[in-house]
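subagent[fold] <- orchestrator: predict structure for attached chain, return tokens only, no commentary.
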Amino acid sequence: VGADRNAAVASSVAIVGLGSIGSNIAISLARSGVKNFLLVDDDLVQPVNLVRHDSDWRSVGMHKVDYVKERINNLFSDVKVSTRKHRIGGQESASSASSLASALADVDLIIDATASDIVSAFCSYIATKKRISLVWMQVFAGGIGGLLAKADSRNGPDPYKVRAAIDRYYNDHPKEDGDIARDYTVVEAGGGWVEASDGVVNTIAGLSTLLSLDLLKEDGQLRRFPHDAYFVGLGADWIFDEPLSNFPLDCEDRTWDSQSNQNSSDAVHGSLEFLRGLIAKVES
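subagent[fold] -> orchestrator:
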């Protein structure tokens, strides 16, 4: 445990997306010993966020990055927290996107907590080019479970290969009565999907924290999570027979290719040319 904490203290972590999952991961990583954070999000805390977000009514109207920074520093005054109020793929200048890309390229681990295709492309591109480990996650519609995924820069494969394997798994295991990736916070009129509870979100956030700490371990330390991705069940639906069912997923190609993107999903692949123009500075 001491070695794990020492590795975390010496590490810098970027979290993109400080919503329900990202905010909980940030606080948990700070409690686990991480001393350097870069927080990226342009959104404000809204009253509707309070059912799952690590915030309370006093934070309503604050930028999420400012709230999480304040929360961390109220717990640990010696933690360094940098913030960027930036919407990746939004109406931001090229210089702002390039500056953010340069900041992300300087951390030890990137966590994408957005479940957004454009953010996925942005983070995957930087992580692959600069060989930085990347973690991402998703809560499934209806709160039936979630996805945990990683690209370990010390033990490949790169993010594009992992994402391609996940896409193939989705295609091979369709959900007959709906889209597994729908917004888990939406309640449909007349029944249908129900929103994921705070317990579901916190479970996926907690597992994502453990996965992140695993990647921050020093070389030679035993990995707790040996697989590239995990489908974690929190209900009896889709591929899950019961709560706590889980299905690990691994890529056959274990290489890390700085030019790899040809197997990414259409949505991610379609945004790469745009992103390359914005973050060309990272290439240098």
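orchestrator: received. Logging for downstream: Strands lie at 12-16, 36-40, 80-84, 109-112, 133-139, 145-151, 229-233, 246-249. The CA atoms of residues 82 and 163 lie 28 Å apart.
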